[in-house]
Task: structure prediction
Amino acid sequence: MNILLSGGTGFIGKALVRYFIQRGHVVYVLTRRSKQDEERVRYIPWMTGEERELDYLKDNPIDVCINLAGEPMYDEKWTSIKKERIITSRIEATTRMISLVKQMEVKPHTFIQGSSTEYYGFAQDERFTDRSLPHLNSFSSEVCEIWENTFLLLNEPKVRMVTARMGIVLDDEDGPLEKLATPIRYYLGGKVASGEQWVSWIHLYDLVRMLDHIINSPAIIGPVNVTSPNPVRMDELGKMIAEKLHKPYWLPLQDWLLKMIYGERSDWIIEGKYVYPEKVTKQGFTFLYPTLSDALFEIYS
Result:
């Protein structure tokens, strides 16, 4: 297959590239940075103002598009300027990707749009499936709704549209797990806020396997929860990280302190949601790391 990928230089994107080339596919990575091509990886300049992406693809019809591009959400304070960049970058990247698809003579059979379980907003006592409606009670949920609504503008009858709502991705190199593990490494670990908030997570390798499963499952259409079938409470996650790192877990971190330090960005830690991957489970996807214990054992072993 020929796979067109935006956001291919992020930690999820890089994992997808590794996975697909190991299986003999060719990945065309849309990037703002100039990079040298590698075996089975072609880097295509985009969002440069020249709009020449199709020149690189004219002899290589694309089978699958995956759009993950957007300004990082949790790397700095959410000022009004940062919020605008978060939203605008997602609209622009998605709109440009849609434009490319509409110009292709041979359409891809599948377009996977990245999103997040943040789409659902926060609700401790609700179980969200792929069919659930959002609460839109946070900035991050509003971002996801705008992102997903932009994707709907594709509206190409021959292109199967899938929205991948990804949970908190656990990996040993980067991402949320390292942010949660850092205070524990320095003997400052303990219950975060109430500790009862739900964490809907997924191991990085299961994430890339699930996207591959979606590509090869024509019956899967529309929103898909990309999460483990076994969410955990934040306190359980913290305790298990501390156990794997052989560190104490003793220092509570109050929600007011997190809000003071991180502002609105603290929502993903303080609040929570129980998200279940109903659609892929019914379509036969098998998790390698279905439980948190399985995932952390692989990551820290």
